[in-house]
Specification:
By secondary structure, the protein is α/β, with parallel strands linked by helices. It is built from eleven helices and 17 strands. The radius of gyration is 20 Å and the shape is globular. The protein starts with a strand and ends in an 8-residue tail after the last helix. The structure holds threonylcarbamoyladenylate (TXA) and magnesium ion (MG).
Length: 338
């Protein structure tokens, strides 16, 4: 099993040594736990892909302590600068043109001439970046095709010995991944909805920001962000969306009140065994729902149910990101999962 340590100063120093020696660290961030490696060290980055079983063409996010370090690796224009001022540290990843010969391993950008960068809003992640003194490539710390980890236990369950040290700092506050914003084209495009909404981005940019993910997926067009494939967050058992009642044998993932959810053949949701019933947020709060999403899907997946029925979640603000994840979880595989 992986070594898990409470993220105190000694453990952070030790983790920085692991990173400098080419190892992998389970790093808490405000979004999900990351599987971090020194982004300047190609061998270390290769270990990330290996540990995740991730297709080599799928690029990774580079985590940096501040905008100044980001500017060593990507071309920061006025738009990026304004966004960084407003949202960094925080759950916004920006795709920007890569600085030539910048030292970041090509494996990180998977051959693209752009690079994804972000400054995580988590004390432990920032301390680790400071102690290691290098940019950290870090995808979500789960094996390809399984759920993104929001607790240290999820990381060790998914990756076992393939991660050298996990820094434990409790559950992640945001609970789903960062917003991925492509700034390398003519107009800003959200490639992956996440912790920062398009509405928030539009406010700073003074123009509408388009969600690229739905259009690209539905038009079957070329995927600019290879991670945006239909089946990304996939429990083992089928996931049924917008459920208004339950089939026999299904577990319930509720949002808001489940008082009127009936089970076909008799009874109500409230008669289900406790481990087959989760509520993303009884008070219908989207932030709470986001923070619970992956852990609850994972718990219901293990409940012995034959499927998961999910109540509708409003498609506004963070709800867009939640629904994006739920849709991926419910779709048939198109091959590549992270
Ligand atoms: O919240 C997060 O973003 C977490 C934490 C650990 O920071 N990280 C994360 O990384 O979710 P990952 O590797 O699971 O997702 C990165 C996404 C993928 O969809 C990938 O395809 C996309 O960003 N991406 C990375 N670099 C890209 C690039 N140069 N161009 C387009 N998409 C890129
Ligand atoms: Mg991931």
């Amino acid at each position: 099993m992986a070594v898990i340590k409470v993220a105190n100063r000694g453990a952070v120093r030790e983790a920085a040594e692991v990173l400098k020696a080419g190892g992998l660290v389970g790093m808490p961030t405000e979004t999900v736990y990351g599987l971090a490696a020194n982004a300047l060290d190609g061998m270390a980055v290769a270990r990330i892909y290996e540990a995740k079983g991730r297709p080599a063409f799928n690029p990774l996010i580079v985590h940096v302590p501040d905008l100044a370090m980001a500017a060593e690796f990507v071309v920061v224009d006025d738009v990026a600068r304004a966004l960084a001022r407003r949202f960094w540290p925080g759950p916004l990843t920006m795709i920007l043109p890569k600085v030539q010969e910048c030292g970041i391993s090509d494996l990180v950008s998977a051959g693209l001439d752009t690079l994804a960068v972000r400054v995580p809003a988590h004390r432990v992640a920032l301390d680790l970046l400071a102690a290691a003194g290098v940019p950290l490539a870090a995808p979500s710390a789960n094996r390809s095709g399984s759920l993104s980890p929001t607790t240290p236990a999820h990381v060790s369950d998914s990756l076992g010995d393939d991660v050298d040290l996990i820094l434990a700092a409790g559950p992640c506050a945001v609970g789903l991944e960062s917003t991925v914003l492509d700034l390398s084209g003519d107009v800003p495009v959200v490639l992956r909805p996440g912790g920062v909404s398009a509405e928030d981005l539009s406010e700073v940019l003074g123009e509408d920001v388009v969600y690229g993910h739905k259009d690209i997926v539905s038009q079957g067009g070329k995927l600019k962000s290879p991670g945006m494939l239909l089946k990304h967050y996939a429990p083992e058992i089928p996931v049924r969306l917008n459920a208004i009642d339950l089939e026999e044998g299904e577990a319930l993932l509720a949002f808001g009140s489940d008082r009127f959810m009936g089970v076909k053949g008799g009874g109500g949701a409230r008669d289900l065994p406790e481990d087959m019933r989760c509520n993303l947020s009884e008070g219908a709060d989207l932030h709470e729902a986001a923070a619970n999403l992956f852990a609850m899907l994972a718990a219901l997946d293990k409940s012995g149910a034959r499927g998961i029925a999910v109540m509708a979640v409003p498609d506004t603000g963070l709800g867009c990101a939640i629904n994006d994840r739920l849709q991926r979880a419910s779709k048939g595989s198109v091959g590549d999962n992270e």
